[in-house]
Amino acid sequence: KERREEKEKLRIRFPSAMSGEEEENAAELKIGDEFLKAKCLMNCEVSLILEHKYEQLQQVSEDPMNQVSQVFEKSLQYVKRFSRYKNPDAVRQVREILSRHQLTEFELCVLGNLCPETAEEAVAMVPSLKTKGRAHSDEAIEKMLNDLSLVKRFE
């Protein structure tokens, strides 16, 4: 009886693993409909949002640390550290550049966060760029990456 209950708990928590469905694979964009349709944010976008919220909290309280949880503080530190772009205009430009290339939100954020320098690196990080029916040419990928590097250079 206990074993049956444990299996039921697993089936509820991880339905695709228990039903025999194919496992999720980000490299092939098999990440589930809820994630394919979700709006993703790059670290630099999250950083801007959290910094704005932090400033709001500072204005409300005499001691801003009373208003900021440890999780908030750690999250802010993380996205600041791993944000490739700091300037809000640069962040906007990066999203615009990547949006022109019919990328999914997931692909856009991976490329925006990791900033590969070559088409080979980009495809290694986001193999779905080369999937059938929507394969991006190496030239198109290089152009996209060059546009991103220009934004970084003039930030």
UniProtKB/TrEMBL annotation:
<feature type="domain" description="RNA polymerase Rpb4/RPC9 core">
    <location>
        <begin position="33"/>
        <end position="155"/>
    </location>
</feature>
<dbReference type="Pfam" id="PF03874">
    <property type="entry name" value="RNA_pol_Rpb4"/>
</dbReference>
<keyword id="KW-0539">Nucleus</keyword>
<comment type="similarity">
    <text>Belongs to the eukaryotic RPB4 RNA polymerase subunit family.</text>
</comment>
<dbReference type="InterPro" id="IPR010997">
    <property type="entry name" value="HRDC-like_sf"/>
</dbReference>
<dbReference type="InterPro" id="IPR045222">
    <property type="entry name" value="Rpb4-like"/>
</dbReference>
<dbReference type="InterPro" id="IPR038324">
    <property type="entry name" value="Rpb4/RPC9_sf"/>
</dbReference>
<dbReference type="InterPro" id="IPR006590">
    <property type="entry name" value="RNA_pol_Rpb4/RPC9_core"/>
</dbReference>
<protein>
    <recommendedName>
        <fullName>RNA polymerase Rpb4/RPC9 core domain-containing protein</fullName>
    </recommendedName>
</protein>
<dbReference type="InterPro" id="IPR005574">
    <property type="entry name" value="Rpb4/RPC9"/>
</dbReference>
